[in-house]
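Hey all, sorry for the wall of text incoming. These are the two entities for the joint prediction.
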Amino acid sequence: MHKITFPLILLAGFIMIFSGCVSEDVPPAAAGKTGESEAGEPEIRTKRVVEEVQLVSRELSYYPDGVLASYRVYTYADEGIQKLEEALYNSDDELLERLVYKYEDGNYRSKQTYEGLGELLQTYDGNGELQNYYTFKYNDAGLLTEDVLYNLYDEPQTRQEYGYDALGNKTEWKVFNGDGALLSTTEYLYEDGLNTRIENYSPDGTLLDYFQLEYDSSSRLIRRTWYSGEDEVMQVHRYVYENGVLAEERVLRTNGSLKRRIVYTSNRAGYPVEAVYLDGGDNIQEQMAYEYVTRTRITYQKVKE
Amino acid sequence: MTEKTRTRMTLGKTGLAAVLLFVCASTGTANEVSAVWTRLYARAVTFPQKQQIMMNIVEQHSRDMVPVLIDALDQEIRNFRNTTSLTEKTMQIDLMTTIVKELGRLKATESQVVVMETVKNAEDPILKGEAILTLGKIGARQYAGELALMLRNLNFNMEYTENQRENEIEAYALVRALERLRSEDGFEPVFFASLGWYSSQSGVKERAGKAMVMMVDDPTDQLLDILLNNPDYTYKLAALEAEERSAAPEDRKADVAAAALDEGLKYSPKNLTERSQLKTLRLYAMAMMKKYPQPDDPQLLTNMERMIALYRADRVFQEDEMITLMETMGTFSGEETAGILSNFLAYYNMRRDAGPPDSYRIVRSLIQALGSVGHISGLEELTMVTISDAWEASVRREAFAAIEKIKP
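and here's what came out:
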């Protein structure tokens, strides 16, 4: 889902909006995406939004005892927010994996994953060769409509399609196998602009399971409940905020007991500089730290007038 | 609203957007995604189908996927012996390797049992190596003993030589896993791996050398055991060097150095090689004692006094050893140390009238050591040097300088 709703943002890593952004109306001709106003229908306009954002430059993962396990380095274009490469290293600075992003018309066109030299390289022929890659397609509004995963022999492995409503909200996600057979369909439902329900269907249209999403009065997601097709609760995610900032995520089992939780330490704008993953017994499983660089981002958003 | 307008968005709205973005992105791992891929994997039958789905599962890098990863690995272990086709076996190994690597990256502690089963069942060295590495990453300390035993057996190199590459891969992974587990059980096999039969290309010895420094806070007991009980002088020296590189407290390093000096004096070399090895051991031990001085521990002096006695009797030791000995003794304090050194200087004073000493460098080092010890009992023999017509002016000047250091 995240790859679709915010493709640029999420493929670029977590982006932090830390200062006020500026928006301006874009003339229909310039944007070419403005919806027609019909009798009684709200008009949809496109706005150009200029933001100062922070992009994750390094993501560090620590073992429970605080020893560095690995770190991921993100490389961006000199200007803008285009991510060019991700490189994953272990604590000995050995390259484990490298992802290379390629663009066309400002959108990702492919993401290639190369096996790094690896931790066992010294003992076998780790070759740094291409392992797999994605190709992406977008609609006129710049929203991701398709991604295809290929293996290193250029054979399609899976294809995913995405559909959107007039406001650019994702409404559908379909998964196909390499031969083009439909494997799964997911539908996204909205109320007052907020995604409140997600439903997973089998290829023959049977509802398999669904998610209910609940928000507080400030439109912050506070609860995500997973139900089976027979309406039984499978799992609950709860989100706890402090001073308007996400402070903790709790994953609960069907009986309500705590399965795990994630505790966040955030900066002033509400984005994490540290995340600690704990199991149900409060034992640390992993600790993450995030470092950022500041960039300017320009996007076009559709709004109802 | 065709007219261009600039609107400052409120910080409140911006902050909300940030929160929403982060919830979707980080925790993200949107659960419907996990649910879909989990279900699709369960429905996959052939290895190509499984691999297709698994590539997407790994792409999520989500803890929500750990149960499906564990189940998938468990399923492949149970089917492992039933897969006979070479093509299918290769795909199965690739699939299992993908899974164990992801479990390691997710630090999935709950996967310990199934990953250890993979280690036991895997024949492919890469799969086995990756599974071993994962045991380290997920903190599987309960298996540290078994991993240590595996490395110990590999160190013996009992397998056929054609398995050398496979064994090196396994050994490398074991060293890394034991390093990560920080298990005392693993220290000794890692120590011997650092000196083992492994080729330089494999990186095993180099890795083991680094691992020893990190894996236990104070390896003194294990290293002392190797130093005292292993008959190979090479291993004795390696144990001493490992102690020096370790994070052990300085007084414990000095203790091990004293024990190493004892070992270096205990045995009679059978050939030139052994003679050289024992000398290196003694020199290294004395250098460590000098580096980590224990000025108030006269017990450490016993072997030094013995060395002086042996030197006086038979010139058992070479000049460089005696100079190092003097420098080391100069780090001690007290009457006992000064007494031993004074006796040695008296020996030289007595013989000087009969002819030049065997080594002026040793004499100068001895005089400097007496000055460094700084005890008044050294004054008499030093004064004898200064008033002697037999000693060269340069030696007398050295004695004057030492006296200056001793005088209150």
